[in-house]
Amino acid sequence: MSTMGPRVVTLGGGHGQAALLAALCLVECEITAIVSVADDGGCSGRLRAELGMPPPGDVRRCLTTLARNRRLAEQFEVRLLAEDELEGEPAVQRSAGNLALSEAYHTFGSLQAAVDWAAELLECRGRVVPVAEVPGVLAVYDMVAGALQGETNVEAQAVSPVVTMVHGPEQANPAAMQAIEAADFIFMGPGSFITSTLATLTTAEVADAIVQARATRVMVHNLESEGDQTERFTILDYVRLLRDHLVIRSGEQNFDFAVLRHQALADGQPRFVRSMLGDGTMDLTAPLAVPGKHQHDPDLVADALAHHFDFVLRDALSVAQPSRPEVVQTFEQSVARARQRLAELEATQAETQAETQSRAESQAPPSSI
Fold first, then answer.
1. What's 266's domain CATH number?
2. DSSP 265-306
């Protein structure tokens, strides 16, 4: 174990993983957030299609959660209207942080290098690691909808998913593999169970590394179902599906993991409870959300980590000084260059399309009357 506390790996993407990272910032530990590269919607999906890069949105969200430089983190989350939008067309907003990451990706040729660059600007408390350096395509077999390709399609159409995998990356990011091997704790979830948690651990050889790791493995359960995808799932369905995918991808069966999940506090009930699920999985419960709120509360999650896993709560969080002018300038210049690059790309594509159409029209046989 590190002198800075246990080495902790989180796997997932989006808001759920960010909620856990916010709690981990309140305890003594070394954090590595391993993030899915299968997102194909919104600003991330558009940059992925335009530049061929892995989607930056989920890594950006993790970066801003871990950032000590809160002022710059707020700038990373600002939404900008794309410069190429036409009047009357649906507005597509660009995330400033995504744009900065795309420019760094262009400069360094690596999403990990771009993320590390951003983490230095943001003065992050841990490291954010895309699970692979190439985009992934989420593939799901659904008992009702059949075979589905792409995260957006899965979110829209899946009602009874049974098998999940990610096509594209043949090898995981070496930084992800090293972090898993060295981890004391591996947290899978919370977040979208199919499109974030399973999408990350079924990328390349990640599942095998999780099973082989010496770490304590924990599935962090979501507060509520995700609509049609998991509406009928019980806790045992989640456990079974997670175990099945770890077995399928690793070939191993002799491993275990615990479940950490929310249990609202009732009169006379212990705050923290350890029990066993029907299949023998360790079930750890605690109040993880404020009544009436539909998101994990960082302070409550940190308390649960301290009780169930002996994490040490931090006395106080250090706060970074306001951004140095050169740091803000570096960020703003990256955003501006990215917007210019994308505008030039759009213009080139439009010109090419016009030339292709003109050539096709000139070669078309004259119409007979």
1. 3.40.50.10680
2. --TT--SSEEEE-TTS-EEEEE--S-TT--S--HHHHHHHHH
Number of domains composing the chain: 1
Residue of higher predicted confidence among 360 and 4: 4
Q: How many CB atoms lie within 10 A of CB 42?
A: 16
Residue type, 255: F
The reported pTM is 0.92
Token pair listed for 149: 């390709």
Residue 354's contacts (CB-CB under 8 Å, 6 or more residues apart) are none
Residue 16, in any domain of the structure: no
The answer as to whether 260 is a domain residue is: yes
Task: State the DSSP H helix or E strand holding residue 105, giving kind and residue range, or none if neither.
Answer: helix 96-108
In this prediction, residue 224 has a pLDDT band, given cuts at 50, 70 and 90, of confident
With bands split at pLDDT 50, 70 and 90, how would you rate the model's confidence at 218? very high
Supply the pLDDT for residue 319.
60
Residues 306-321: b if buried by 16+ CB within 10 A, e if exposed:
bebbebeeeeeeeeee
